[in-house]
Amino acid sequence: MPPDGRIARITEIRADRAALETSRGRLAAAVATERETLRRVELLRTILAEREKLLTAHREAFKREVAARVAAETAGADQLSRQLVFERSAAKREADLSLLGNTSTAAAEAAAARVLALERTHAAAAASLEHALARQRAAEAGAYQLDDGNEPDWATHSLYTARLELSRGEEELGRAQALLTAARAEAAAADLIFDRSHDVILTAPPGSIVWSHFSAPHAGVVPGTQILSWVDPKTLLVDVPISDAEASLLHPGDRAFVVVEGETRTRKARVLLVRGSSGTLGTDDLVAIAKGRRPGIAQAILTVEMLPGDLEHPPISIMAFVDFPDVSILSIIRTRLRL
User: Fold this and answer.
1) Across 175-184, average pLDDT
2) CB 202 within 8 A of CB 6
3) CA–CA separation, 130 and 124 (whole Å)
4) Could you give the CA distance from residue 305 to residue 265 in angstroms, rounded to a whole number?
5) What backbone torsions phi and psi does residue 234 show, to the nearest 5 degrees?
C-alpha cells in the first residue's frame, strides 16, 4: 500500500463539467482583458514619456533662444548708451560754439535733434531688453511666451491629457487585475468541486493491508457497492468462542495468554469486550471468526500484544490457543450450577 494510504480511486464519468468549463472560460476572458489593458497602459506610459522628452527639448531650446535674445538686447542697449554719451557731448560743444558765434545755430539744433532721436532709440532698446528679461524669468518659472505675448504651439499641448489617459488606464488595469484574481479563485474552486465530484480517493491507515477486492479494476459500480476491504495489522484481535457461563466471568481488561498456531512464544492479551451468544460479532465486523463459532456460543474479543515481525507478516486468520488465568474450570462449573 502507498505511504499516503490510498487504496482505490473511483471516477464519475458522467460528472457535470458545465460549471468547470464556465469558470475556465471566465478565467480565459479575464486573462485576455488583463493582458490587453496592461498593453494599453504600457503604450500610454511610452507616449507620456516621449511627450515629456519632447516638451523638455522645446523648453530647453526656448530658454536658449530667450537667453540669446537677452544677450543681443543687452549688447545693443550698451552700444546705444555709449553712443548717447558721445552725442550728448557733441551737442554740448555745438551749443557752446553757437553761443560764442563760432558755428551756426542750425548746426547746434541739428546736434540736439540727433540726441533726442538717439534717446528715443535707447529708450526703446531698454524697453525691449526689459521685455526679454521678463520672458527669461517667466521661462525659468515654467511660463513660456512669444514676443506677442502668446504661448508657443508646443506649450499649448499640455501633458494633462496624456496623464489623464494614463491614470484612467491604470484604474482599468487595477479593475482587470482584481477580476483576474477573482476568476482564478473561482476556477480553482470549480476545479476542486469537480475533482471531488469526479474522483473519490479511498484511503486506509498507512501500513494497512488490502484484504479482499469485490470489484475488478475499471469496473462500473453503483452507490453503496462494496469495493474492497482492508485490515490494520497494528491492532491484533482474537475471536474466542466461549460459553455463556464463562462469558459472565470475563470483564474488559482481564488478562489472557495467547499462543498462535505455529509459534512457540506466548503473547499477552487483554479482554476488549465480551458478547453473549445472541449478539456475537461476525464477518461484517471481523476479518475472520473462530472455527468454533456456532449458534449458542458466546464470544470474547481480545487485544493481543505485537511482536517483532508482525507488521511484515501479521498473524491473521490463524488458529490460536487462549487461556484466561483468572477463570478456572471450577468457577465455570459453579456458575453453571448457580452455586
Assistant:
1) 94
2) yes
3) 10
4) 12
5) -75, -15
3-state helix, strand, coil in the chain (%, to 5): 50, 15, 35
Q: Write out pLDDT tens, residues 92-146.
A: 887 777 777 776 777 777 878 888 888 898 888 888 888 888 888 888 888 878 7
Q: Which three cell numbers stand for residue 176?
A: 482587470
DSSP notation for 215-277: S-TT----TT---EEEE-TTSEEEEEEE-HHHHTT--TT-EEEEEETT--PPEEEEEEEEE-T
pTM above 0.70, yes or no: no
Residue given cell 469486550 in the structure block: 273
Q: Strand, helix or coil at 286? A: coil
Give dist(CA 297, CA 240) in Å, integer. 10
Q: Which residues contact 213 (CB under 8 A, 6 or more apart)?
A: 227, 228
Q: What's the CA gap between 337 and 266, in Å, rounded?
A: 32
Cα pseudo-dihedral 247, 229, 225, 195, rounded to 10: 130
188-216 residue pLDDT tens? 998 888 777 777 777 877 777 777 777 77
C-alpha span between 122 and 20 (Å, rounded): 88
